[in-house]
Specification:
It contains two helices and eight strands, in the order βββββαββαβ. By secondary structure, the chain is mainly beta. It starts with a strand and ends in an 8-residue tail after the last strand.
Length: 154
């Protein structure tokens, strides 16, 4: 069974009123522990109001960096998403389980030249990692992303 590691929050980027991009510094952890394949996720653990809360988030950056990056959207009454989008600060430490998951893109440089990614809303986060990975191989990616926009039209 995988253990949790205490990772420092190195950057928080506010994306919208209710979503953030969080970077965790993994430079001090053995490289193999937090190595991942585009599409995988991490599980965060934090004590919120005395309750042990665990939530999983897709990794949105490319592999082989000194960071792990996730996107978090505020969920109504969500303990972890509220904490991460409203209370988390740079320098805070969060318990993080190493990457896992089987939602991965298998690439073949000799055969595949064009890729299509279809996603909706915050489901774009694992696709971002995959798209960046494919673009680094000088391949073509077409993205179809569906979003809900909350505005009054009248």
């Amino acid at each position: 069974m995988k253990n949790f590691y205490s990772l420092e929050v190195s950057e928080i980027i506010r994306l919208t009123n209710d979503s953030v991009c969080i970077h965790f510094d993994v430079s001090s952890i053995d490289n193999n522990i937090f190595s991942f394949v585009a599409g995988q996720y991490i599980t965060l653990q934090h004590s919120i109001n005395g309750e042990d809360v665990r939530r999983s988030y897709s990794i949105s950056c490319i592999p082989n960096q000194q960071k792990i990056e996730i996107g978090v959207k505020l969920v109504k009454n969500g303990l972890m998403s509220t904490f991460l989008t409203k209370d988390l600060k740079i320098g805070d430490k969060i318990n993080v389980m190493p990457p896992t998951g089987n939602f991965m893109l298998t690439t073949d440089n000799s055969n595949s030249k064009h890729y299509m990614a279809i996603c909706a809303g915050s489901g774009i986060t694992p696709a971002l990692s995959m798209i960046q990975d494919v673009l680094l191989m000088n391949q073509t990616v077409h993205l179809r992303c569906f979003m809900e926009i909350k505005i009054d039209l009248v």
